[in-house]
Specification:
alpha/beta; single chain; 181 residues
Length: 181
Amino acid sequence: MQYKRAVFLDRDGTIIKDKGYIGDITKVTFFPFAFDALLKIQQFFMLFIVTNQAGIAKGIVTHDEVTAVNSYIVRVLSNKGIKIQALYCCPHKKEDDCKCRKPKPYFIEQAISKYKIDSSKSFVVGDHPSDVMLAQNAGMQGIYVLTGHGQKHRGEINNNVIVKKNLHYAVDYILKSVNTQ
Protein backbone atom coordinates (compact mmCIF):
# COMPACT_ATOMS: atom_id res chain seq x y z
CA MET A 1 0.00 0.00 0.00
CA GLN A 2 1.32 3.42 -0.94
CA TYR A 3 0.95 6.09 1.70
CA LYS A 4 0.00 9.58 0.59
CA ARG A 5 1.37 13.01 1.36
CA ALA A 6 -0.78 15.73 2.88
CA VAL A 7 -0.75 19.39 3.85
CA PHE A 8 -2.78 20.38 6.91
CA LEU A 9 -3.71 24.04 6.81
CA ASP A 10 -4.82 26.41 9.51
CA ARG A 11 -7.97 28.31 8.48
CA ASP A 12 -7.90 31.87 9.87
CA GLY A 13 -4.74 33.79 9.09
CA THR A 14 -3.50 31.18 6.61
CA ILE A 15 -6.22 30.67 3.98
CA ILE A 16 -8.56 33.49 5.01
CA LYS A 17 -7.90 36.77 6.76
CA ASP A 18 -8.14 36.52 10.53
CA LYS A 19 -11.08 38.66 11.65
CA GLY A 20 -11.72 37.16 15.06
CA TYR A 21 -14.58 34.76 15.58
CA ILE A 22 -16.33 34.57 12.23
CA GLY A 23 -19.95 33.44 12.34
CA ASP A 24 -21.13 35.02 9.10
CA ILE A 25 -19.98 34.02 5.62
CA THR A 26 -20.05 37.67 4.48
CA LYS A 27 -17.08 38.27 6.82
CA VAL A 28 -14.89 35.66 5.08
CA THR A 29 -12.09 37.18 3.00
CA PHE A 30 -9.69 34.83 1.25
CA PHE A 31 -6.08 35.82 0.86
CA PRO A 32 -5.67 36.55 -2.87
CA PHE A 33 -2.68 34.17 -3.16
CA ALA A 34 -4.46 31.24 -1.49
CA PHE A 35 -6.26 29.89 -4.56
CA ASP A 36 -3.20 29.66 -6.82
CA ALA A 37 -1.06 28.23 -4.03
CA LEU A 38 -3.58 25.51 -3.18
CA LEU A 39 -4.21 24.65 -6.83
CA LYS A 40 -0.48 24.19 -7.29
CA ILE A 41 0.15 22.02 -4.26
CA GLN A 42 -2.91 19.78 -4.55
CA GLN A 43 -1.27 18.16 -7.57
CA PHE A 44 1.11 16.44 -5.14
CA PHE A 45 -0.56 16.57 -1.70
CA MET A 46 -3.98 15.96 -0.23
CA LEU A 47 -5.31 19.06 1.51
CA PHE A 48 -6.94 19.32 4.93
CA ILE A 49 -7.99 22.19 7.16
CA VAL A 50 -7.59 22.01 10.95
CA THR A 51 -9.02 24.93 12.91
CA ASN A 52 -9.52 25.84 16.55
CA GLN A 53 -12.78 27.75 16.99
CA ALA A 54 -12.95 28.61 20.69
CA GLY A 55 -15.64 31.21 19.96
CA ILE A 56 -18.15 28.36 20.07
CA ALA A 57 -17.26 27.41 23.65
CA LYS A 58 -17.08 31.08 24.62
CA GLY A 59 -20.60 31.70 23.31
CA ILE A 60 -19.45 34.30 20.76
CA VAL A 61 -20.51 32.24 17.74
CA THR A 62 -22.73 29.19 17.49
CA HIS A 63 -21.69 25.78 16.26
CA ASP A 64 -24.12 26.19 13.35
CA GLU A 65 -22.57 29.54 12.38
CA VAL A 66 -19.06 28.11 12.38
CA THR A 67 -20.25 25.06 10.43
CA ALA A 68 -21.81 27.39 7.84
CA VAL A 69 -18.56 29.37 7.55
CA ASN A 70 -16.50 26.18 7.25
CA SER A 71 -18.86 24.78 4.60
CA TYR A 72 -18.71 28.06 2.72
CA ILE A 73 -14.89 28.04 2.71
CA VAL A 74 -14.77 24.45 1.43
CA ARG A 75 -17.42 25.28 -1.22
CA VAL A 76 -15.56 28.37 -2.48
CA LEU A 77 -12.33 26.39 -2.67
CA SER A 78 -14.14 23.59 -4.51
CA ASN A 79 -15.59 26.07 -6.99
CA LYS A 80 -12.00 27.17 -7.69
CA GLY A 81 -11.00 23.54 -8.33
CA ILE A 82 -9.42 22.94 -4.91
CA LYS A 83 -10.37 19.76 -3.07
CA ILE A 84 -10.26 19.79 0.71
CA GLN A 85 -10.35 16.17 1.85
CA ALA A 86 -11.72 17.07 5.28
CA LEU A 87 -12.10 20.08 7.54
CA TYR A 88 -11.57 19.40 11.24
CA CYS A 89 -12.82 21.91 13.79
CA CYS A 90 -12.21 22.00 17.54
CA PRO A 91 -15.00 23.97 19.29
CA HIS A 92 -13.30 24.05 22.70
CA LYS A 93 -11.43 26.67 24.72
CA LYS A 94 -7.82 26.11 25.67
CA GLU A 95 -8.88 25.69 29.31
CA ASP A 96 -11.18 22.78 28.37
CA ASP A 97 -8.10 20.57 27.80
CA CYS A 98 -9.96 18.58 25.16
CA LYS A 99 -8.36 15.90 23.00
CA CYS A 100 -8.90 17.74 19.70
CA ARG A 101 -7.50 21.25 20.20
CA LYS A 102 -4.27 22.07 18.40
CA PRO A 103 -1.45 21.37 19.12
CA LYS A 104 -2.80 17.92 19.99
CA PRO A 105 -2.63 15.69 16.88
CA TYR A 106 -6.09 14.12 17.35
CA PHE A 107 -7.51 15.24 13.98
CA ILE A 108 -4.29 14.50 12.13
CA GLU A 109 -4.22 11.01 13.59
CA GLN A 110 -7.79 10.50 12.31
CA ALA A 111 -6.77 11.67 8.84
CA ILE A 112 -3.63 9.51 8.83
CA SER A 113 -5.71 6.44 9.60
CA LYS A 114 -8.58 7.18 7.21
CA TYR A 115 -6.55 8.47 4.25
CA LYS A 116 -3.34 6.41 4.71
CA ILE A 117 -1.06 9.44 5.03
CA ASP A 118 2.71 9.28 5.45
CA SER A 119 3.32 11.80 8.24
CA SER A 120 7.06 11.94 7.50
CA LYS A 121 6.27 13.37 4.04
CA SER A 122 3.51 15.72 5.16
CA PHE A 123 3.28 19.32 6.38
CA VAL A 124 1.31 21.65 8.64
CA VAL A 125 1.06 25.31 7.60
CA GLY A 126 -0.26 27.95 9.97
CA ASP A 127 0.13 31.36 11.58
CA HIS A 128 0.22 30.33 15.23
CA PRO A 129 2.82 28.51 17.34
CA SER A 130 0.21 25.79 17.99
CA ASP A 131 0.36 24.90 14.28
CA VAL A 132 4.12 24.36 14.46
CA MET A 133 3.70 22.33 17.66
CA LEU A 134 0.92 20.32 15.97
CA ALA A 135 3.32 19.42 13.17
CA GLN A 136 5.96 18.30 15.67
CA ASN A 137 3.42 16.27 17.66
CA ALA A 138 2.27 14.54 14.46
CA GLY A 139 5.75 13.82 13.10
CA MET A 140 5.37 16.35 10.29
CA GLN A 141 7.25 19.42 9.10
CA GLY A 142 5.70 22.68 10.29
CA ILE A 143 5.79 25.90 8.31
CA TYR A 144 4.98 29.12 10.09
CA VAL A 145 3.44 31.92 8.01
CA LEU A 146 3.59 35.60 8.89
CA THR A 147 0.01 36.38 7.83
CA GLY A 148 -2.80 36.54 10.39
CA HIS A 149 -1.27 36.32 13.87
CA GLY A 150 2.10 35.25 12.46
CA GLN A 151 3.95 38.49 13.08
CA LYS A 152 2.48 38.83 16.58
CA HIS A 153 3.59 35.38 17.75
CA ARG A 154 6.85 35.04 15.82
CA GLY A 155 8.92 35.43 18.98
CA GLU A 156 7.21 32.36 20.47
CA ILE A 157 8.64 29.91 17.93
CA ASN A 158 12.19 28.61 17.99
CA ASN A 159 14.80 29.46 15.39
CA ASN A 160 14.78 26.11 13.60
CA VAL A 161 11.17 26.54 12.42
CA ILE A 162 10.69 27.32 8.73
CA VAL A 163 9.10 30.78 8.45
CA LYS A 164 7.54 32.07 5.23
CA LYS A 165 5.80 35.33 4.33
CA ASN A 166 2.48 33.66 3.45
CA LEU A 167 0.85 30.49 2.11
CA HIS A 168 2.16 31.13 -1.41
CA TYR A 169 5.78 31.10 -0.19
CA ALA A 170 5.10 28.11 2.06
CA VAL A 171 3.78 26.12 -0.90
CA ASP A 172 6.81 27.07 -3.00
CA TYR A 173 9.07 25.90 -0.17
CA ILE A 174 7.22 22.58 0.13
CA LEU A 175 7.33 21.90 -3.59
CA LYS A 176 11.06 22.72 -3.79
CA SER A 177 11.96 20.65 -0.73
CA VAL A 178 10.24 17.39 -1.64
CA ASN A 179 10.38 15.09 -4.59
CA THR A 180 7.18 15.91 -6.49
CA GLN A 181 7.74 13.35 -9.19
